[in-house]
Amino acid sequence: MQSITIKRAAAQDAERLTALVQESGAYEGKYASIISGYRVTADYIAQHGVFVAVDTVERLLGFYALVLEPPELDLAFVADDAQGRGVGRLLIEHMIGQAREAGLADVRVVSHPPAEEFYRRLGAERVGMVAPAPPKVAWERPELRFVTV
User: Fold this and answer.
1) 10: closest CA among 36, 40, 46, 38?
2) How would you label 125-136 residue by residue, b for 16+ Cβ within 10 Å and e otherwise?
3) How far apart are the first and last CA of the chain?
4) Can you spell out the DSSP letters for 12-65?
5) Averaged over 71-99, what is the pLDDT?
6) What CATH superfamily classification does 5-147 receive?
7) Per-residue pLDDT, 149
8) Which of 47, 63, 99, 104 is buried most deeply by CB count within 10 Å?
């Protein structure tokens, strides 16, 4: 596997994070509405724990956003061409470490339905389901929790 660095996102990363979200193959078809028009802004990056995974030439491989209050993994994306290479695992392990450092006992995840098994393989437990929120989200989503202590 290539060398991967995880580091804090900066305001100037906003456009490329937005592009990664908008280009995600995981949100095509019936799931497209949830990211339609979504933007990762410089203000969002400044307010939350947003971390990027990059390779040796600074190519964006993925990112996550940890909201501290209430504790929640708000965003987690891996570039389509980087999936299956351990990037997602590195990001989630990093997120759990950040949550521990912040003194959080657990972190909530409202999962994209196809991603639930990924989170469960990394130790998240399902604690319920989140009801649809039309018009953007017309489907139930698994609610998971990572215990960090």
Assistant:
1) 46
2) eeeeeeeeeeee
3) 29
4) GGHHHHHHHHHT-GGG-GGGGGGTTT----HHHHHHSEEEEEE-TT--EEEEEE
5) 97
6) Gcn5-related N-acetyltransferase (GNAT) (3.40.630.30)
7) 87
8) 63
pTM exceeds 0.85: yes
* pLDDT tens digits, 44-69: 999 999 999 999 999 999 999 999 99
Which of 105, 1, 19, 32 has the alpha carbon at shortest distance from 63? 19
Please give the pLDDT value at position 78. Answer: 98
Taking CA atoms, 24 is separated from 51, 78, 106, 114, in Å, by 18, 8, 27, 13
CA–CA distances in Å: residue 114 to residues 1, 33, 97, 139: 25, 15, 24, 12
Interatomic CA distance for residues 25 and 41, integer angstroms? 21
